[in-house]
Amino acid sequence: MNKSVLIFDLDNTIYPVSSIAEKLFEKLFDVIEKSGEYKGDFEAVKLEIQRTPFQKVASAFSFSEQLLNDCMDVHINLTYDDPMHYFPDYKLVRELPQTKFLVTSGFSKLQHSKIDNLGIRNDFKEIVILDLQQSNDTKKDIFICLLEKYQFPKKEVLIVGDDINSEIHAGKELGIDTVIYDRLEKYTDLNLTNKIDNFAGLAKFL
User: Concatenated DSSP letters for 6-46?
Assistant: First the structure.
């Protein structure tokens, strides 16, 4: 397929959020549970926070304005400073010759701390953090900017991520090939031809 450019997501694509969630979000979960000013099941809220940008979770579960503000106060300076580990098969990504980019949604300070703790910063030509506090852009907007900045033909680009409603959907809208990294088996009930559960499977899409 002659792909020369790979664009990766971070959370649940390069490492499992569940491996750090309880410690990372301990204070945030406590604030939400004590408030009770949301709709839906608390365990569902916790799960969604591990795989969806926080602002979208707050909207989906109808957080009150006060709860949203309290959560943002917790989030604003949140970092993760303990050791982190990427998925074992990520080492295969490092060996690929293609030019690689990282595009991730989240709070800038937190995302940067994860990237540094994982030791992956130098694996990418450019890292873009889509901080919804600072921008109304979407991943689709970021992909367009990267294509224009580096003059990449769409046919040479492959987007790899775990979320069919985020980077995968954006890629499809732009006519860019995508691969769903389903290491955590989120989409076992869907018959998807562009799904892998190990980065060894990327070879047939490159």
Answer: EEE--BTTTB-GGGTHHHHTHHHHHHHHHH--SSS-HHHHH
The closest alpha carbon to 10, from 78, 103, 120, belongs to: 103
Residues forming CATH 3.40.50.1000 domain(s) in the chain: 5-15+82-205
Q: Which residues fall within 8 angstroms of residue 150, CB to CB, at 6 or more apart?
A: 5
Per residue in 11-42, pLDDT tens?
999 999 999 998 998 999 999 999 999 999 99
Q: What is the pLDDT of residues 169-186, one digit of tens each?
A: 999 999 999 999 999 988
CA 163 to chain centroid, in Å, comes to 8
Structure tokens at 75: 């989030």
- 3.90.280.10, 3.30.870.10, 3.40.50.1000, 1.10.630.10: which CATH number matches 5-15+82-205? 3.40.50.1000
Strands (DSSP E) found in 5-156 = 5-8, 99-105, 126-130
Cβ neighbours around 86 below 10 Å, total:
19
Crossing angle (nearest 10°) for helices 42-49 and 26-35: 150
